[in-house]
Specification:
2 copies of one chain form a homodimer. By secondary structure, the first copy, chain A, is mainly beta. Chain A has 2 helices and 8 strands, in the order ββαββββββα. The termini of chain A are far apart.
């Protein structure tokens, strides 16, 4: 019996993960983790997710350099969402070059982009 | 064409919703919304979700009184998660009587409950 047994993985073996910045308290992103991703996250102190599109572990920052150092892991009351509280390298979590993926705010009848691009994605993902 | 058309509902017509407290910045809870729930949330300024277990709209606080007044709605980059930034009535979002559903923190090999019960759930849900 381990802490990972308390996590209510879905039928695909996945759990929803929210990353929140420890300093700004912004909700940065939402992704998935499987059991292996959670165990590696806890063991290494670096945020690891499961990429459904690539069907493999996704070590956040492996391409962008925008790693997430874990400050705390939290679990919700029904066990099906994990919260990663992180220090966000570069202050950028989103692939668009913004701090947070939640950069659109509802303004009347439309979503308005309200957060700046901090770094051009072409520069982030240049090989 | 309306803002709700920009939301990437899943095959069940649902989208993940995160509620965050506008003041404490705590992540309070995660639930689901359908299109109708989002539209009512935006129109009324009160958080509405879709309860899968009850298969109907869930106007947060309808039983507990712990309503959520909407301060802002945000949408993430791929459109499949909506963030409700809220004022939480009573300072309690969780059915356990705690501020947040994320009241368990990983401590070594186990989850430890680190947040206090602010109100006995039997008093919250007494008819």
């Amino acid at each position: 019996m381990t802490w990972a047994d308390d996590v209510a993985f879905d039928e695909r073996g996945l759990v929803t993960v929210i990353a929140q910045d420890a300093a700004s308290r912004r909700v940065l992103m939402v992704a998935w983790a499987n059991r292996e991703a959670l165990l590696e996250t806890a063991a290494t102190g670096q945020a690891v997710y499961y990429s459904r599109s690539r069907a493999r572990l996704w070590r956040k920052g492996e391409e962008s350099g925008h790693r997430q150092r874990i400050k705390e892991l939290r679990l919700d009351c029904d066990g099906d969402v994990v919260l990663y509280v992180v220090e966000q390298a570069g202050g950028i979590a989103c692939h668009t070059g913004r701090e947070s993926c939640f950069f659109r705010s509802l303004d009347g009848d439309s979503w308005r982009t309200v957060d700046p691009v901090l770094k051009d994605p072409e520069l982030i993902y240049r090989k």
